[in-house]
């Protein structure tokens, strides 16, 4: 999708819709991340692909480099929340949950994160007099941008529609998405060449092999954890802190947030999922609800100082120091933390769509 120029079409569509606002390119950055989430499901891919395009453009329009890098990193965490999501597939495999239910449960939380970031940008734009784009799109130009983005935007619809409709499994959906993106790149958009496929497949194989190694390690670790009785020991300790599930959820959110600062979301789910999941299910928390709490929290950790992975990716793409980006990202992290607590204490935010579609009782 990246090699085929699909990312550029999504950015152009976002700019046509929101570029006229004060702080327009910051809004474009966020909307592009929300759209890109439906294609990649990866915060790192989002930061790398969108950052390389939007950070220079934002700098040219008058934004500081640290702000441009910070909003890119902050919005990239939407990638693993809005389906399809790589970390939710890992969680589903490790914990034996429904991939479709997890995908559906992530839709509203991901949109909430995006809207929260946009509200923050609007407040900052009014207060600090952010730039306004000099060229404004006409409705005719917006229509053309929408047509250019039509085929890329069909990708998440095909993936989710196929899974929810029972046409294919998540694994088959991935294969269909690859086939669709390749066909579009080669024959419809004509932005991909046959000779590019070798490099594309090599990179994809390397990424996939990492995921497979993680899953294999997850199953071995899950067995070791079960034999050691660590979940039972930790459960006794956690429950001893309070008998109120709401208090325990607060404490676990703090724990996950700290873990997310230092550990990538995938390994953290593999290590902590088999330990924490059964504890909260025994306390009456729905397993899908807890999966979303854990996934969103650890995903936000990807952009949290001092060791958030996407901070380093944003630094590499922008050339700005990690310390400067870390300071600039704090207002956006506060909004994302607020969304985490909303998801935690208002289960309907994540549970309504899976229930309405029949994937949860």
**Which value, in Å, is the CA radius of gyration?**
20 Å
Number of strands: 0
Summed up, the helix count is 18
> Pairing-aware structural class of the strands and helices?
mainly alpha
Main sheet characteristics? none
Percent of residues in β-strands? under 5%
N-end to C-end Cα span = 36 Å
| Uncertain runs | none
Oligomeric state of the chains?
A: single chain
Query: How many domains, in number, for the residues?
Result: 1
Approximately how much helix is present in the residues? over 70%
- Shape, per Cα inertia axes: globular
Instruction: Let me know the average pLDDT.
Output: 86
Précis, in short:
This protein is mainly α. The protein has helices at residues 6-18, 24-37, 43-61, 65-76, 86-95, 99-105, 107-128, 139-164, 170-188, 197-228, 230-241, 245-262, 265-282, 287-301, 309-318, 322-328, 330-345, 348-356. The two termini are 36 Å apart.
